[in-house]
Amino acid sequence: MSRIGNSDLDVLPLSLGGNVFGWTADRDTSFAVLDAFHAGGGDFIDTADAYSAWAPGNSGGESETLIGEWLASRRPENVVVATKVSQHPQFRGLSAANVRAAAEASLKRLGVDTIDLYYAHFDDESVPLEETVAAFGDLVKDGLVRYTAVSNYTGPRIREWIDYAQAAGSALPVAVQPHYNLVHRNEVEEGVVPVAEEFGLGLVPYSALASGFLTGKYRSTDATGQSSPRAQGAAKYATAQGLTIIDALEGIGKAHGVSIASTALAWLRAQPTVVAPIASASRVDQVGGLLDSARVDLTADEIDELTRLSEWNADQG
Question: Which of the two ends of the chain, N or C, has the fewest CB atoms closer than 10 A to its terminal CB?
């Protein structure tokens, strides 16, 4: 188990991404994926109030609603649910009033009394940061949220958030959610990890499999005919060097009896301050491989090899 920063939240070191629920995974599939994840020991679910407003016919909140229905149906014990505010079409931004209203809406959709981990999804520089920090602190003080966190914030802005919180005696963030994986490293390792180390924050990286590239599924440098947005997003990583990383992941994975994706997630889990990479599954048969990543321990030499091979690639993505 891994502890999320300075909180008392202990989780299996893998977070199930809820971005697909109500989008590429319908209700029955979402329930089946959640069942398989929980049955395999998974207990950390990540979502956002905006998921999946981008899908035709959706308005936002679909993922939270499905997760809430699953929680009510299954009543699982010790499951940690994280969600986020600032991108829902009806609750954009991080003004104090919006943060409160969005949190109340998320609580209703999730069907819970308290949100375990609540992220500011994206920085909102149109609102004084001091106002946002105070609003998050009030949610904790009033029992609507257990712990606060930030997503997609730069190192300096995280430090500024912490300064305001400390000055006000308000709740300090315990986690950071950055875009971080084997082929997207520099900005996180140089700007975010040092702040996380200084203040005891846990990293919960998203896009941990680089739009699916780090599953090994997209090995062609030619995206022609690959119509899905995911395929197009993954194709940009399929350079000669990127494919070298995939080959290395495959070889290391075979030595441990796990998949390319499991190995990529295991490398990420081994990085400083990382608590639990986020990965999503649109099918039940994908869940086992994700869970493998939380239990396989790469050797120091294997971690070093993957780190070396990906250093040249660190600015991609």
Answer: N
Nearest CA-CA partner of 127 in 172, 103, 171, 91: 91
**Rounded average pLDDT over 6-23:** 98
Q: Do strands 80-85 and 44-46 pair parallel, antiparallel, or not at all (unpaired)?
A: parallel
Distance CA 111, CA 69 (A): 8
Instruction: Provide the 3-class DSSP secondary structure of residue 98.
Output: helix
**Mean pLDDT for the stretch of residues 83-99:** 98
Q: What are the structure tokens assigned to 244, written together?
A: 């070298």
- How many angstroms separate the Cα of 283 from the Cα of each of 32, 105, 205, 240, 287? 8, 28, 21, 30, 7
Q: Which residues are CB-neighbours of 128 under 8 A, at least 6 positions away? A: none
- Give the pLDDT confidence of 61-79 residue by residue, as tens digits: 999 999 999 999 999 999 9
Residue 80 carries which side chain, given as an amino acid letter?
V
Nearest to 59 by CA among 14, 107, 109: 109
Structure tokens at 283: 């099918």
pLDDT of residue 224: 47
8 A C-beta contact, residue 23 and residue 62: yes
pLDDT band at residue 229, thresholds of 50, 70 and 90? low
Residue 48: how many CA atoms within 13 Å on its side-chain side?
27
